[in-house]
Amino acid sequence: MPRLSVWFVRASLIYLLAGFTLGALMLAQDGISYYPAIIAVLPVHMEFLLVGWLVQLALGVAFWIFPRFGLGLPHSRGNEKLIWVSFVLLNAGVLIVALELWIAAALLIGRTLEVLAVLVYVLGSWRRVKPHGA
Amino acid sequence: MPTLTRWFIKTSLVCLALALIAGLLLAVQAIFSLTTLGGLFPVYIHLLVFGWLTQLVFGVVFWMFPKYSTEKARGSETLGWWTYILLNVGLLLRVVAEPVQSMNPNPVTGWMLVVSAVIQFFAGLTFVANSWKRVRVK
After folding, report:
1. What is the DSSP string of A71-123?
2. Which end of chain A has the least Cβ crowding within 10 Å, N or C?
3. What is the mean pLDDT of chain B?
4. A33: burial class by Cβ within 10 Å (0-12, 13-18, 19+)?
């Protein structure tokens, strides 16, 4: 697994745990009312699990297993710098979205970064969606 | 495909079918303005995203990720089975207790939800613990 995929996948595992933690706190609140305000974390729970965990895992695994431009050649996975930029933008986006609990504008800024992350990722990966050996 | 992965994937497919049935019930409730079963929406979402999608991912990760070592290619198989059990027992408790709790809150289903919350968290924790070292540069 390339180093960049390791970063994507490990970050996704961290978001999985964070998302599960928030989900467990909310579910327990439904069972025994201990802190009703905890329901406010629902959007962050969804953000962590849908974008931080599932989307990020898919992007990391795709970078690892998509067809390459000649095994052993430099840049066999295309422009890796672009995908690093995508990784940084995506994680900055998810973390900034989480700040919406305190700062309303964070949602817009975070989502913008997430869109940019995916656009950059698509740009960097588009040509790797090809037949093997092509 | 390892046995544990087959269990993960087949159970995820069952959850997918159950999720879509719950979605159908939600549609019936909406169309006929029924309020017979509350708490169904979170059950639908979690059967779909947790029971199907996440469980499918867990199974495929256990199967396809880089080997942990020559002797223990997939890390701790025991821990993997614990993930499977915790995930599905937690989900089942939720599916049973959440609709009841939303319509008729009581200590039994209330505590079932608390237990479900705790064991679903541990399902995630055991999965991450078992997968972390398999995510490495090769």
Report:
1. TTSTTTTS-HHHHHHHHHHHHHHHHHHHGGGT-THHHHHHHHHHHHHHHHHHH
2. C
3. 94
4. exposed
A23–B135 CB contact, under 8 Å: no
Q: Which residues of A touch B124 (CB under 8 A)?
A: 16-17, 20
Nearest chain A Cα to B129, which residue? A13
CA distance A7 to A84: 9
* CB contact (8 A) between residue B128 and residue A23: no
Query: Which residue in this structure is represented by tokens 């059990």?
Result: B85
Residue B36's pLDDT is 66
Which residue of B66, B128, B135 is in closest CB contact with A16? B128
User: Residue B121 and residue A31: Cβ atoms within 8 Å?
Assistant: no
pTM: 0.94
Our CA angle for B79, B82, B86, nearest 5°, is 145
pLDDT of residue A44: 97
- Which residues 67-126 of chain B have a CB within 8 Å of chain A? 94, 97-98, 101-102, 109-114, 116-118, 120-121, 123-125
Per-residue pLDDT of B59-117, as tens digits, reads 999 999 998 888 888 989 999 999 999 999 999 999 999 999 999 999 999 999 999 99
The answer to whether B131 and B65 are in contact (CB under 8 A) is: yes
